[in-house]
Amino acid sequence: MYPEEIVAPMRQEAVDMGCVELRTAEAVTKALKQGTGTAVVLVNSVCGCAAANARPGLRLALEHGDRKPDHCYTVFAGNDAEATQAARACFTGYPPSSPSIGLLKDGKLVGMLQRMDIEGHSAQQVAMQLIELFNAHCATPAL
Fold it and tell me: Which fold has domain 4-138?
């Protein structure tokens, strides 16, 4: 577990782009398993590829895509273990990965970016992957 003063700015970056923090398994269950519409879930992390690629890539996709998910959530791997485990339980067919970004539609996983899709890719490349997913599965036009 990382000291909160270290992860607080990383949490805030996700919140500032519009993600709602889910810090308990109950919050994840309520938001994801009982939710309708589309939801993107960022499994946030302290690693460099989260800072350089995942968070900026998600921000770019939310700002510049033609469509966006109905909901944007984040859990923090390494600090909110139960919430992260509950979110990863929704990512059926994929091993745990930090950072990662999943897209759910009506509670079912329809797209996934794992660490291998993020690490070594620019924020713009991550954004393009997310924009493709959003355009394929999200009905809400971007503002």
Answer: Glutaredoxin (3.40.30)
